[in-house]
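Exercise 7. Given the components listed, write out the predicted structure of the assembled complex. Treat all entries as one system.
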Amino acid sequence: MTTTDERPAGFENNDHKPVGHGRMLRKEDPRFIRGKGRYVDDVQLPGMLHCAILRSPVAHARIVSIDTSAAEAHPKVKAVVTGATLTGLGLAWMPTLSGDVQAVLATDKVRFQGQEVAFVVAEDRYAARDALELIDVEYDVLDPVVDVRKALDPSAPVIRDDLDGKRNNHIFDWETGDEAATEAVFASADVVVSEDIVYPRVHPAPMETCGCVADYDRIDSRLTLWSTSQAPHAHRTLYAIVAGLPEHKIRVISPDIGGGFGGKVPIYPGYVCAIVGSIVTGKPVKWMEDRSENLTSTGFARDYIMRGEIAATRDGRILAVRTNVLADHGAFNGVAAPVKYPAGFFGVFTGSYDLQAAYCKMTAVYTNKAPGGVAYACSFRITEAVYLVERIVDCLAYELKMDPVELRIKNFIQPEQFPYRTKTGWLYDSGDYEPTMRKALEIAGYDDLRKEQAERRARGELMGIGVAFFTEAVGAGPRKDMDILGLGMADGCELRVHPTGKAVVRLSVQSQGQGHETTFAQIVAEEIGIPPADIDVVHGDTDQTPFGLGTYGSRSTPVSGAAAALVARKVRDKARIIASGMLEVSVADLEWVKGAFHVKGDPEKSVTIQDIAMRAHGAGDLPEGIEGGLEAQICYNPENLTYPHGAYICVVDIDPGTAQVKVRRFVAVDDCGTRINPMIIEGQVHRGLTDGVGMALMEMIAFDEDGNCLGGSLMDYLIPTALEVPDWETGFTVTPSPHHPIGAKGVGESATVGSPPAIVNAVVDALKPFGIRHADMPLTPSRVWDAMRGVPRPPV
Amino acid sequence: MQVPAPVEYERATSVDHAIGLLERLGGSARLVAGGHSLLPMMKLRLASPEYLIDINDLHGELGYIRVEPDEVRIGAMTRHRELLESGELAEVFPIFRDAERVIADPVVRNRGTLGGSLCQADPSEDLSAVCTTLGANCVIRGGSGERVVTMEEFYRGPYETAVEDAEMLVEIRIPVRPSGSSAYEKVERRAGDWAIVSAGAAVWLDGGLIADARVGLAAVGPNTAGLPAVSDALRGREPSEELYKQAGALAAENCSPVTDMRGSAEYKRHLAEELTRRALRRSVVRINERGWHAGIHDRQR
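Answer.
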């Protein structure tokens, strides 16, 4: 597969070696690094047409009229569709993932800049785009709701007058924890610290934008949809429900996906437009959004305005945490989270600490901004929760004049307390926090760093050391608690061993770059002893794989990974019976060593899994009652979420003259339980840490007072480059999950969750000489300079 | 994929050919060199010229850096990368290398040109600030011949220059004076971003006193501006931290930044001061270092 020639000295060629878990190059990479990946935009079908979408130039307006006649007259245009056309088809509105409805094409009003108003299907992409200029829309511009703090003012314009009886912009109130008990603890605490903390609106900005190719076959009434979807099965079911197409006539294919980060969980209007375009024209229709469309209209993340409060004793025993959140959900409530969790898993804002009480009250509102709410590797709002608690704990350390590490260690949930029920009801499965923290301190050389900081401060230099410790809740989820639009969050897996001992494993989850083709082959290999190179992983095609809810919220390994291990064990159980027949001993007399059964006490008498596979498909007799073939299928319902944790330490230097922040070092010690492929884990962590630098220092989707999005290109919405990030220093501890079959926990989003508070804590620590206790992201030079002058400003 | 509106395309084979095409096609035509400003604008449909005249084949004619005793001449098609890599240019005007290290990224620098940068006339553009700092002159050619304008004359406003519809910028000429050096300082939100503020400085010493000095700023006003007030305050004085501070304060007073996504007007004004100080300091350090090196060199000889 690969040669070792160009590799650095000392590199161990481990490509095929691990028959199971271990460091191994990714099976999918040869095609990616050769430019042979097959993405949605690579799909070319005979006669394929192209769709382009006309979007609203304003944030809030009534549509007076739409004239499409000039566009229809364009020689290359095959169809022009407006909200009125869709109303006739019953498709103008579609359900969101959280019980709201969203306009596919605006009928009455436009509610955010960039909202879909009409679409054109034409012979090529250029003609489709040109024809958009020929559509004449008359808007009656309305006052927009941009400032989320004013959304509930009685005088605020009502955005969702499409909803029956809606007279304000309120979406929901949500609370968790015990308000009275928390109040009692706060009332009698020695020390109470509160801080206003904003997690600004950001965007996942995947390399590949969203898009699809819809091919509706009028003869068979069959729809094939190549789509940038993190959840092909869930999407298929939703299309069946929304469009009234029979589910067995829909095939959703997610080919190679160029990054998702949660942004490819929802169904976007563009997908529906392409499907309608194909139905109307009888031809395959491709829609690929451009970068501006992606940044301005698809799922944003965060946008929480939080008041954090923490109560503690004078000597640093944390007693309670309380928070009040105002959540900006944009024009439609498009949050992708399990139904019972309108704020996702924000309830884990109690962090890694043993508290007496906790309480959160949240209000979500509509504004004239793009919808979304859960995206950008956030583990269903755990990003916001961890940021809140890790920032407020640092504020407490500031007030108590305590070292932030010492304060955290003093309050950790202790290993013997697991499984630990938090005050907001979450059952942390396992954890051993202090060794993880100690390891990070050791790698960082924490004591020396503090000495260096003291010396630098004495010279007027600004150096900061930031610490964050997180616990995540990932792997949604147990079907008794969790569903999305009624669909349980279990995942199927099917394993088929071919006669020659090669195998194919079919997954319901969908890789967007995480390396599933390698990791899942390794999981199966570990259980059944077939080398990963001999195991094909099939995913991303509803016709080829069992049902399941897809990849987001770091759920692939916790849910589908468990399914893969269990289905392999099921096959191994059958193999054992066949082996007993082959070796003419009872099942109880067989011993499994990876890849083979042998007779206990007689290792010479053995059969390999490959021998067994041939026998299973061969002509010889099988033990009584055993069918031929060697395959199995299961559907795994997780017993609980998994709770990975980690300790992150960041060192920054700030130029006192220009207020520029340089991240000098970053140490990340992650505990995600059993580690299947450490290289892939490190890659995931590197990516998430880079995300963290982006969010902490530069990323924000901002709006002007008219509701114009100011982040519509990658020149305006900055994402970090290699020059902004240090050499990552990673480490690990291993605390297996007690309920996961191989003890693994999710890790895909850990670094995105854990790094922003570490970086912000470091910047705030550097600014300590200025008496600064908090400054909001993004910590651009201008905003850091404000903080240095004692006037840190919220970003919204 | 962002797609531009329909456009006719022609490749010019010589400067005269390009000017001939411009004369024929008038204001509906645009020259494209590196394309890193014009093409994104076309893809966003912020610009929709009817004709594009590609002048990349003129690199042979207009891609040069000629360092002469009294003057440096740089052809308009000289690419950023060539400016970055020219040791000869860095020797005379180190400000070019300072600036080019922080302009965009290698992909852009391989393609973007000096002429394109200047003609885009973006108030945040770095080479405009460099040329202003150095008191460059711009050679503009049309059907009836060449004319030479100063940088002050060249800029008429944001995105607006003295180059008329049927003309093109062909060369930049920078006077070389003895005992001088220069430096460039930029603060950006991220590598490759436009400047929040940049400052260029050029200083010429005579007997330990400042014979002349110029400061040019980017991103703090409608046009990349030279600051005569700063030059006046520096001339005849002995370089010192106190003097740089005064010059910085004058720079901050004499610019007109606005608040935007890159930063507040106050912060930008602060940067104008801070970066002016730094650029002046570095320029003087460079003159002194070169003096020292020259001294060693002389002794060895």
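Discussion: Chain B has three domains: 8-57, 58-175, 180-295. Chain B has a mean pLDDT of 94.
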